[in-house]
Design brief:
Structural class: alpha+beta
Oligomer: single chain
Largest sheet: 8 strands, mixed
Distance between the termini: 65 Å
Keywords: Autophagy, Cytoplasm, Hydrolase, Isopeptide bond, Metal-binding, Phosphoprotein, Protease, Repeat, Thiol protease, Ubl conjugation, Ubl conjugation pathway, Zinc, Zinc-finger
Shape: globular
Subcellular location: Cytoplasm
InterPro entries: Papain-like_cys_pep_sf, Peptidase_C19_UCH, Ub_carboxyl-term_hydrolase, UBA, UBA-like_sf, Ubiquitinyl_hydrolase, UBP13_Znf-UBP_var, USP
GO biological process, one term: protein deubiquitination
GO molecular function, one term: cysteine-type deubiquitinase activity
């Protein structure tokens, strides 16, 4: 077909086509044009691969079949990959307003030319500029354009589809701070909730599940005051579902999540209604168990935060608002717009993408990741990480205003060097989905999000490359029985170092006492509060507190075969490439009011922790016997324990995945669930602890009568031998992309016939030789490979020197992690830069002593 229209030209080079011509042009593509259905996500504000929007120079192209949107640089990729030809092109134009005879703008009237739901540009003066939106259909590959609306000439289906796309709601509706909270219904059980008069009083801390002793994701039942763990989440956090079991046993419908209670409310869940709900009588229901929310509300809001000078001071110091900050532009100096309490995410991601290993893993692999992304790239972690990294590092979205614009702003006395930044809506929607906290619009803990992100990186590694390796280190824990003096050494994986605040080591105690007396007197007499005096804590004291022994609750001594007193000390069995240090500033007071240690700690620019290197078993120390505590089987499960083994095909895969997400080998998890009779992850976990040192711990489950391996998943090729030939239809898909058949077969066998993982495998094994004999040799040696690969591998760590230098820190302002604001400082090109949401400026006085999380890089020895 002869090319008739340029990319941004008009249809047919300006020739007006008759209605029949347009209909004829669309006929071959009609089967691919869809009308959005309920549940379809229509992206018309943001490209799936970049931060282009209708405001961008090239506009935005919305696929009329998938409803994904693409900028000018990425729409051709989608067309080549899917064959979808019809796109709606959206463009917003900014025009100077027409002026009247007196020189002023004409009276403002309703602008019927705006139909796109887009953020307006705060840099533009609304008195001088106006917007005009344009929509047209573009048919690839010849880029024919059909202006919209065009009701008379377009087929009815196309007109309906276009109208539906233009009127569709944002796919990020839950992230809208004005709407998401209103989606929660009021529980029908709240008004007449029965509460037992059983004398239960809930302490402000130290909670644990009444059935399994877990200390996270705990829920308080509002009827009887039971504290039980919630369900297991996809990111390995959560619990064993005992709160739900309690509801099934007792029928008590409402529970509140401990740790979320603030003066403004808390997370309440209705088991009967199976959804989060609102409890308008929550304060009364909590008071029944000694949690006085009304008192908390009165205490915290007796003076508003803005009326309390100390809090204002903290905000000013951390944001450096008392100084004139110079905006920074260019690669690496792009800000992130705040979506409503999303600053915790922005601060963490700015720090993450200042690390070269993350830059290389994602932005460095951008062409490959984008070219081989799934059909819906908005739902792919690596694609969205790459998109965000490129947006922050390319400089494409951080350009200084041109000289003419600055002169015009100065002449109009409205010079405000604004920075737009990029909006991480798509990224936040993906990384937070299915997570009850991060998917909300509430403020969150930056430390918890950091660990959540590391978990996602681990689970979505690109081939053998895993940038989160730079954070991983091993902790040696030494536990000593106080009665027998015998010891046990164990190792665990961690990703950050948590330092306690050593308040007792404050160097200005006299000043603190005087300030406290003056403050109380001012409050009593309702006078202005005195200027804040912060506790000055030496960093060395916090480091010392970290290394000191701590008591072990409910310690079971294998030497005594009974519970006893025990103490634990922790040391570094390895030092990470990048050390993340969290200052444990947040706690709860006896009155349940969230408290923050507002302290100043002299964090060092150079940090030496070599003295915290683990030493292992020392001469003269005697190890505790290798005897595990007895497994306590719940009464309601004893009748399920049978002498006969279950059929391997009946293994509870949900329990297997819960254990696998904790880092144990998959086959070991299957055996644990199998040999404990499908009694749940908790009992299977105890089996793992007992058997993890056995040589066949991670080998596939084999039982007489079941013909060998119970699962082929443990094999490096996905099967033991030639029987597991990959499905021909999947092989055909890979070979159609230009890869050799032998390469496709090997990749599928290495990834258990998973198409997307097989493509990743191909790109992570460039050394593959296109030799058919290689496949035969691979198949003949499959069993030997199974044996070598089945051995459990220890966690990958990048050990080295314990000398570090500070390169970034995240600071928090506010009274608790559930409120306030986060800001990030990063050292770039020899100077500190402050990242405060979309604003990126050169720092004048980096408040290193007030940080919450600190990022150190190893100094090469």
């Amino acid at each position: 077909m002869q090319r008739r229209g340029a990319l941004f030209g008009v249809l047919g080079g300006g020739r007006k086509m008759a209605a029949g011509d347009i209909g004829e042009l669309l006929v071959p593509h009609m089967p691919t044009i869809r009308v959005p259905r309920s549940g379809d996500r229509v992206y018309k504000n943001e490209c799936a691969f970049s931060y282009d929007s209708p405001n961008s120079e090239g506009g935005l192209y919305v696929c009329m079949n998938t409803f994904l949107a693409f900028g000018r640089e990425h729409v051709e990729r989608h067309f080549r990959k899917t064959g979808q030809s019809v796109y709606m092109h959206l463009k917003r134009h900014v025009k100077e307003k027409v002026r009247g005879a007196s020189g002023g703008a004409l009276p403002q009237r309703r602008n019927s030319k705006i139909f796109l739901d887009l953020d307006t540009d705060d840099d533009l003066n609304s008195d001088d500029y106006e917007y005009e939106d344009e929509a047209k259909l573009v048919i690839f590959p010849d880029h024919y354009e059909i202006a919209l609306p065009n009701i008379e000439e377009l087929p009815a289906l196309v007109t309906i589809a276009c109208d539906a796309v233009l009127s569709s709601k944002s796919p990020y509706r839950k992230q809208d701070p004005d709407t998401w909270e209103n989606e929660l219904p009021v529980s029908k059980y709240a008004n007449n909730l029965t509460q037992l008069d059983n004398g239960v009083r809930i302490p402000p801390s130290g909670w644990k599940c009444a059935r399994c002793d877990l200390r996270e994701n705990l829920w308080l039942n509002l009827t009887d005051g039971s504290i039980l763990c919630g369900k297991w989440f996809f990111d390995s956090s959560g619990g064993n579902g005992h709160a739900l079991e309690h509801y099934r046993d007792m029928g008590y419908p409402l529970a509140v999540k401990l740790g979320t209670i603030t003066p403004d409310g808390a997370d309440v869940y209705s088991f009967q209604e199976e959804e989060p709900v609102l409890d308008p009588h929550l304060a009364k229901h909590l008071a029944h168990f000694g949690i006085d929310m009304l008192h908390m509300h009165g205490t915290e809001n007796r003076l508003r935060d803005n009326d309390i000078k100390p809090r204002v001071s903290e905000w000013e110091v951390i944001q450096e608002s008392g100084t004139k900050l110079k905006p920074m532009y260019g690669p690496g100096y792009t800000g992130l717009k705040n979506l409503g309490n999303s600053c915790y995410l922005s601060s963490v991601m700015q720090a993450i993408f200042s690390i070269p290993e993350f830059q290389r893993a994602y932005v460095g692999n951008l062409p490959r990741i984008f070219d081989y992304s799934p059909l819906d790239p908005t739902q792919d972690f690596n694609t969205q990480m790459t998109k965000l990294g490129h947006g922050l590092l390319s400089g494409q979205y951080s350009k200084p205003p041109v000289k003419a614009e600055l002169i015009e702003q100065v002449m109009k006395e409205e010079h405000k060097p604004q920075q737009n930044g990029i909006s991480p809506r798509m990224f936040k929607a993906f990384v937070s989905k299915s997570h009850p906290e991060f998917s909300s619009n509430r403020q969150q803990d930056a430390q918890e999000f950091f660990l959540h992100l590391v978990n996602l990186v681990e689970r979505n590694r690109i081939g053998s490359e895993n940038p989160s390796d730079v954070f991983r280190f091993l902790v040696e824990e030494r536990i000593q029985c106080c009665q027998t003096r015998k010891v046990r050494y164990t190792e665990r994986v961690d990703y950050l170092m948590q330092l306690p605040v050593a308040m007792e080591a404050a160097t200005n105690k006299d000043e603190l006492i005087a300030y406290e007396l003056t403050r109380r007197e001012a409050e009593a007499n309702r006078r202005p509060l005195p200027e804040l005096v912060r506790a000055k804590i030496p960093f060395s004291a916090c480091l010392q507190a970290f290394s000191e022994p701590e008591n072990v609750d409910d310690f079971w001594s294998s030497a005594l075969q009974a519970k006893s007193a025990g103490v634990k000390t922790s040391r570094f069995a390895s030092f990470p490439e990048y050390l993340v240090v969290q200052i444990k500033k947040f706690t709860f007071g006896l009155d349940w009011v969230p408290k923050k240690f507002d302290v100043s700690i002299d964090m060092p620019d150079l940090l030496d922790i070599n003295h915290l290197r683990a030493r292992g078993l020392q001469p003269g120390e005697e190890e505790l016997p290798d005897i595990s505590p007895p497994i306590v089987i719940p009464d309601d499960s004893k009748d399920r324990l049978m002498n006969q083994l279950i059929d391997p095909s009946d293994i509870d895969e949900s329990s297997v995945m819960q254990l696998a997400e904790m880092g144990f080998p998959l086959e070991a998890c299957r055996k644990a669930v199998y040999f404990t009779g499908n009694m749940g992850a908790e009992v299977a976990f105890n089996w793992i602890i007992i058997h993890m040192e056995e040589p066949d711990f991670a080998e596939p489950l084999t039982m007489p009568g079941y013909g060998g391996a119970a699962s082929a998943g443990a094999s490096v090729f996905g099967a033991s031998g030639l029987d597991n030939q990959p499905p021909e239809e999947i092989v055909a898909i890979i070979t159609s992309m230009g890869f050799q058949r032998n390469q496709a077969v090997q990749a599928l066998r290495a990834t258990n016939n998973n198409l997307e993982r097989a493509l990743d495998w191909i790109f992570s094994h460039p050394e593959f030789e296109e030799d058919s004999d290689f496949v035969i040799e691979m198949e003949n040696n499959a069993n030997a490979n199974i044996i070598s690969e089945a051995k459990p591998e220890g966690p990958r760590v990048k050990d080295g020197s314990g000398m570090y230098e500070l390169f970034a820190f995240i600071s928090h302002m506010g009274t608790s992690t559930m409120s306030g604001h986060y800001v990030c400082h990063i050292k770039k090109e020899g100077r500190w830069v402050i990242y405060n949401d979309h604003k990126v400026c050169a720092s004048e006085r980096a408040p290193k002593d007030l940080g919450y999380m600190y990022f150190y890089r190893r100094i090469p020895s």
